Each structure stands twice: as structure tokens, then as C-alpha cells.
Amino acid sequence: MTSKYETESKGYTMTTVMQEAARCLLCHDAPCSQACPAHTNPAKFIRSVRFRNVKGAAETIRENNALGSICARVCPTERYCEKACTRAKIDGPIDISGIQRYVTDMERKLNMKILKAGKPNGMSIAIIGSGPSALQAATTLLEKGYAVDIYEKNAKAGGYLTYGIPEYRLPEEIVDYEVQRIVDLGAHIIYNTTVGEDISIDQLKNNHDAVIVAIGTSKAKMLPMFEHNICTESAISFLARAKENKGKLDDLPKNVLVIGGGDVAMDVVTTLKKLDVPYVTDVVYEQFSEFKASKKELAGAQAAGVTIIDGYVPKEVHQNRATFTHRKIDSEITITADKIILAVGQKADATGLNIDLQHNEIPFREARYRTKDPKVFATGDIVEGDKTVVVAVQKGKEVAEEIDRLLGGQEND
């Protein structure tokens, strides 16, 4: 029997997706398409769905977004395309992510082969990391004729897609499907290999025409007072354990305190409730009016029965007993829990790469995606910009275009 942790919400049927697509106003200026960071072009693929041209819709999505079926599930569309939707001013935005999920699910079911590798141009690129930005960069480069080697420290590709986002939001089979498509396109993934330990970045530079650093922000930030607290676990660690074990964790207590208010924190608290933890309390720095988490994920956590206390800052902690003070009013609360999970951000770990990280981000103010080394580029969460999958896709496309321009690949077209 499939557990609540593994159960994904149901998607559209042919009948219901047509009903939703029919709500689209077919705007001439298509503000939804203009608002998509990855330029997935929802206006065009929704129009194709309305005419029952699912293959055409899939082609539109894939030509712009190599991770279309993933973005359909995890993209915070209320910040981007659905926020810009003209229909939102009438009775609510079109469910763009739901329609995209239907199209990409049909693409997978019918085994459509849409993307094609370009004619080999004799040049090769090394990519360190295999998260969403790395996978999109690899796809764009392969389409342009480059050979691509991806170096991944873990046993599976996908980065946070594989080791972080809960199964009920993003099934493992979807990530595996997207990765396999890119491998079929020609990407060579070297697993269980840490650049800086098993192989040096200088070796990659000697064997490739360019190197892309796409290591992501995989290391958890830890508030100093919780640094050596035996009752505290990072959100990254907890979500990875839950994903690896399909939610079958035998060390979950009845009362868990979570600290943090972003999407990762919402993943943690909702996962805990799906694993039948009866008492889950989330204490958040932001007040509800300034929440960082997506409205959809926040609503899901509230519907699951999570207690959310907003506007409080940690003051002190003694093992499993934490005290908080309110940011704006004279108020203090103390919570005793069996376990504390900290979801207060992530940072990059560039150990052994010999690249300059400033405040955990490469400072690309003037030359985005470039480092001080003319042969080394960067993309993904270590580059300035939103830390979402759809923005990672955008960055992956842009770094690939930048490399192609500098290496003169366009001259070979």
C-alpha cells in the first residue's frame, strides 16, 4: 500500500484539462509567457491543448525547458506565470502548472522523443553537479553539439530534486525520467565522484574547453546557539533521510519543533504530518504578511494541521527546550519538543574547487556566470537570483548560451 508520503495529488484527465484550458483568454500579448523565467511559453502550449494537440504542447515545453515535468510539480507559479495571468483579475488564474503536468505526463506515457543532439562540434564541457541548472545547461549544450561530462558526488543525479523535495510533491520516477532523457541525449554522468577530492578542477580544465560549477547550496546553515545541540537536525538532513527511506523513519517522536518559514520548512512540516507525527509546531521569523514560502505550500501545511507561530526569533535553547521573543511586541514563548529541525537556509560548499565564494555566492555583478578564471563558469543557486527550479533552468540555459558565444560554437551552425 502506498503511504501518504509517497502519494502524489491527482492530475487532470483529458476532459478536465480541456475544461481548464478553455478558460484561457488567448491573450495576444501573453503576459503569462513573459513572466516565466525559463520562457516555457504557457500561452502557446495551452493553445495547443485547446486544439487537442498534445504533441505540439509537449514540443513547446521541451524546446524551452528540459525539466518541464519537474517544474510542473514544484514551480511556485503564483510568483511567475499565474501571477501575470489576465484571468486572475476575473475569477482566478489558469492552472498553468496543472496543464503543464498533464502534457508532460502524456509525453512520458507516449514515450515522445522531442529533443535532439546537435551535430558534434568537437568541443566538450565539464559540469560539476547535477542539479536542475546543471541538467538544463547540459541539455542546451548537447543540442548545440558539445560533448558534456557531468561529475556528481552522489550515487544519483538531480541534486536537491533527488535528495530534498518530498516524494508526494516530486516522485522519484519523475526525476529519474528527466535525467534519463538527458543521458539519452548524450550526457555522460560520472557518479560518486567529488571534484576537489577524486579529481581536481585543473584536470577538468585540461580535458575540457570549459567547466561549469553547479554545486548548488547543499550545506545547511546552522544558527550558532543550535550548533552542537544533540536534539537538533537540519532540514536538509531530515528531508534526505525521508526521501531515501520513502518516509519510513523509525526515529520520529510525537512532538517536533521546526524553525524556519521558507518552502523547505513547509516541506519539513508537511512531511512530518504525512508521517503521522501528531504535534508539529513551526516557529517563523517572518509574520504571515511577509512569508517567504509559497502560498500553496503554506496552505498545504496549514491544512495538514501544522501549528504555525509567526514573528518570533530564537533567543536561547537548552537541548530540546527553545525560547523565542517576538520581533515587534513584548512577548516571549518557550517550547519543549522531542526533536528540533532547523530550516533557516542553505549555503554552498566549494571545498577543493579553488573558486572565489563571497558570502556563499560567487559575485557576478558585472559578468554573470563568469568567474575570475576565463575557463570556469558558474550557474544555479550559487549565482545571484531566485532559488527556484524554474530560475535554475533559466540560469542553465543562459550559462550555456554564454559559453557557446565565447567558444564560437555559433559560428559552426
UniProtKB/TrEMBL annotation:
It comes from Limosilactobacillus caviae. Keywords: Oxidoreductase. This is dihydrouracil dehydrogenase (NAD(+)). Residues 4-109 form the Dihydroprymidine dehydrogenase domain. The lineage of its organism: Bacteria, Bacillati, Bacillota, Bacilli, Lactobacillales. It comes from the Bacteria. Transmembrane segments: none annotated. The gene is preT. Heterotetramer of 2 PreA and 2 PreT subunits. Its EC number is 1.3.1.1. It catalyses: 5,6-dihydrothymine + NAD(+) = thymine + NADH + H(+); 5,6-dihydrouracil + NAD(+) = uracil + NADH + H(+). Residues 124-396 form the FAD/NAD(P)-binding domain. InterPro entries: DPD_II (IPR028261), FAD/NAD-bd_sf (IPR036188), FAD/NAD-binding_dom (IPR023753), Helical_ferredxn (IPR009051). Involved in pyrimidine base degradation. Catalyzes physiologically the reduction of uracil to 5,6-dihydrouracil (DHU) by using NADH as a specific cosubstrate. It also catalyzes the reverse reaction and the reduction of thymine to 5,6-dihydrothymine (DHT). It is an enzyme of class 1 (oxidoreductase).
